[in-house]
Specification:
With 473 residues, the chain is of the alpha+beta class. Helix content is 25%, strand content 29%. It folds into 2 domains: 323 residues, Thiolase/Chalcone synthase (Peroxisomal Thiolase, Chain A, domain 1); 134 residues, no CATH class. The protein starts with a strand and ends in a 5-residue tail after the last strand.
């Protein structure tokens, strides 16, 4: 029976206390904090980091498909799943598919992957969901939303969590939407959205699933039920008669509503603490609902998942900076940091191994490891005799850095640095991100993180920056 073998997640390091919204507007905000994608992060970079988290725990050998889900993909016409697969260093014969336009697209991708494995057309599918939704300034969505990504590897072997049954329902309802021309999410009147939409549809799907399997709410060990916000999530939980011990963390207070990624993010958090014999129900919502029943054989493999990312955080206390990171507030780009509008597509394509996959060349004669890839070994001078090795999943330390106060940007000074990988002591020129100017220390543990570098010729350019290593307990 196919099921989950590995899970992963990525939550941006920046957290904005919701009290900042009240300070900015004189009211609203609410309790807790929300995760905020930094100026060099977007939906795709979050997705790659979550995917790598899941792959680092399990490995890449059997993965033959990548399904990507989001309502805020950076391209309206270009596959995001293809870039995730490339950055994840998967082979060219991997199948890719993109799911979008619905908050339910995360579980839609999950179920599509499950069906493909059951049918025998795929062996192991990496499903990754990511969102960076925006609410109108001063709206409740602005404070409630959060940026995050979740990844699940479904497989027909090494299964830790069986997917025993699932149902899907469809409901055409204009409750929450965003048109092609909209930057911000729109919504109808709250009572209609909740009572006729989220609450009624979610509860009905979960009830149908339990009835179909001769179960009651009390038979569930954990219920991971999507909620648009903490208040309405709590109301649905109470109406279902679930005990507090049965409810998976809703993550609204510490992360926010992560859109298409939220249901899978809750599932990952629940499975981190699962035990053999647990029965878990997952319910998502968006133009209908998906309800999925899972039986835990053992904890799935994971590395950082949700818990480590929740603990690794940095306070963001500026409302203006929050707007600037999300592109809502335009700032002076400062001439030194302006990217030239140049046709770089050919160069990006040609250098994929160096940049997107972060490969180095390892000399087959003397084992010297070099980045970027070198045809001629600078140690033994052998030519075209090397093996490509991946660097971003290896431990590294900060070898050298400089503070560039003239580069401009949203977080001056730019910390240009050299990272030294544990893979043959290869040295990589990069940028230290998610760190203040006084945090950089020679020899400090760092890790690679996939980031958006700039936009040139009207497309996005990505590369691997480094950040202080996340502690995994």
């Amino acid at each position: 029976m196919p099921g989950i073998s590995s899970v992963g997640a990525y939550i941006p390091k920046y957290r904005l206390p919701r009290s900042v919204f009240a300070q900015a507007w004189g009211s609203g905000g609410g309790a807790g904090e929300r995760a905020v994608a930094s100026y060099d992060e977007d939906t795709l970079s979050l997705a790659v980091n979550a995917a790598v988290d899941a792959l680092n725990a399990q490995g890449r050998d059997d993965v033959d498909a990548v399904f990507f889900a989001s309502t805020t993909a950076p391209y309206k016409e270009k596959s995001s799943a293809a870039l995730v697969a490339t950055a994840a260093d998967l082979p060219a014969n991997v199948r890719t598919a993109d799911f979008g336009n619905s908050l339910r697209s995360g579980t839609s991708a999950f179920l599509a992957a499950l069906d493909a494995i059951k049918a025998g057309s795929l062996r192991s599918v990496l499903v990754v969901a990511s969102d960076t939704r925006r609410g109108f300034p001063k709206s409740s969505f602005e404070a409630t939303f959060g940026d995050a990504a979740a990844a699940v590897i479904l497989s027909n072997k090494q299964v830790a969590v069986n997917v025993t049954d699932y149902i899907s329902t469809t409901s055409e309802i204009a409750d929450v939407w965003r048109r092609d021309s909209d930057q911000f999410v729109r919504s109808w009147e709250d009572r209609f959205v909740i009572t006729q939409g989220y609450e009624a549809i979610t509860k009905a799907a979960l009830a149908d699933l339990l009835t179909k399997n001769n179960l009651t709410n009390k038979d569930l060990t954990t219920a991971a039920i999507y909620g648009p916000d903490a208040r309405n999530h709590g109301a649905v939980i109470r109406s279902l008669g679930l005990d507090a011990s049965q409810v998976a963390p809703n993550l609204i207070d510490g992360v926010g509503n992560a859109g298409a990624a939220h249901s899978l993010l809750m599932l990952v958090a629940a499975l981190e603490n699962a035990a053999p014999g647990d029965k878990v129900a997952l319910a998502s919502y968006g133009d209908g609902a998906d309800a999925i029943l899972l039986d835990v054989k053992q904890k799935p493999k994971f590395e950082k998942a949700v818990s480590a990312h929740l603990a690794d955080k940095r306070a963001l206390t500026s409302y203006d900076r929050f707007l600037a990171y999300g592109g809502t507030l335009a700032t002076d780009p400062e001439p030194p940091s302006r990217a030239e509008s140049m046709g770089a597509a050919t160069k990006t394509w040609r250098l994929q191994s160096d940049t997107i996959r972060l490969h180095a060349s390892k000399c087959n004669q003397c084992a010297t490891v070099t980045h970027p890839i070198q045809r001629i070994c600078y140690t033994c001078r052998s030519k075209d005799d090397y093996t490509e090795v991946r660097l971003y999943d290896k431990p590294a330390k900060l070898f050298a850095f400089t503070k560039d106060h003239l580069a401009g940007g949203l977080e001056p000074p730019v910390l240009n640095c050299i990272a030294e990988s544990s893979e043959g002591s290869a040295r990589v020129f990069s940028i230290l991100t998610d760190a203040g100017p006084d945090e950089a220390k020679i020899g400090m543990p760092i890790e690679f993180t996939f980031r958006k570098m700039n936009e040139a010729a009207n497309f996005h350019n990505y590369y691997w920056k480094v950040k202080p290593a996340v502690k995994v307990t």
